[in-house]
Amino acid sequence: MKTFRIAVWVGVLILAGFLGGYTLYLTKSKNVVAEAPFGVPFTLVSQSGQPITEQALRGKPTALFFGFTHCPEVCPTTLFELNGWMEKVDPKGDKLQAYFVTVDPERDTPEIMNEYVSNVSKRITGISGAPDKIAEVVKGFRVYAKKVPVDEKDPNGDYTMDHTASVFLLDSAGRFSGTIAYGENPDTAVKKLENLVSKG
């Protein structure tokens, strides 16, 4: 009986050691993820026609938004509001940057992006690229984007895009720091950008 009790306690200690080690492993894994830059490496094209990589999202806190130029409401509203928030938080424009990545590269060429974004903001840079490259970035940044036909009877006709409507906030190392939801209270959005800038 004594031998049985000893065997049980040994088993319990081994199990406890395993669970403790596994918990430590999970904790370290989460820390590694949190310390890594958000998204994936990429080479796309800015609205000026120049190559742009993930390194553009380093060096300064960044607001990153995914959308498309044919968007009827969410995208123009978000760009307009984001521009206003940035002017409040960073009047000189040297502490915060923002990018607008198209999820509709078939229609949103760099030239179209330049015309569209420039009409709303001088502080936000539009990004386009080859459809397969954009698809990799959309997936890598965990963005939802889906082409939706305007007329279900004509799947190859005109279309719109369903997509994630939040603005991603990244710190100066490119790490995920939070989001601003579509329709967020303006004061809350400004505070989030202020916290992002103060964090660096």
Automatic annotation (TrEMBL):
InterPro entries: SCO1/SenC (IPR003782), Thioredoxin-like_sf (IPR036249), Thioredoxin_domain (IPR013766). Keywords: Copper, Disulfide bond, Membrane, Metal-binding, Transmembrane, Transmembrane helix. The keyword Transmembrane applies. The keyword Membrane applies. The chain crosses the membrane at residues 6-25. One of its GO terms (molecular function) is metal ion binding. Disulfide bonds join C71-C75. Residues 33-198 form the Thioredoxin domain. PROSITE patterns: THIOREDOXIN_2. Gene3D superfamilies: Glutaredoxin (3.40.30.10). Cu cation binds at C71, C75, H163. Belongs to the SCO1/2 family. This is Protein SCO1/2. It comes from Rhizobium esperanzae.
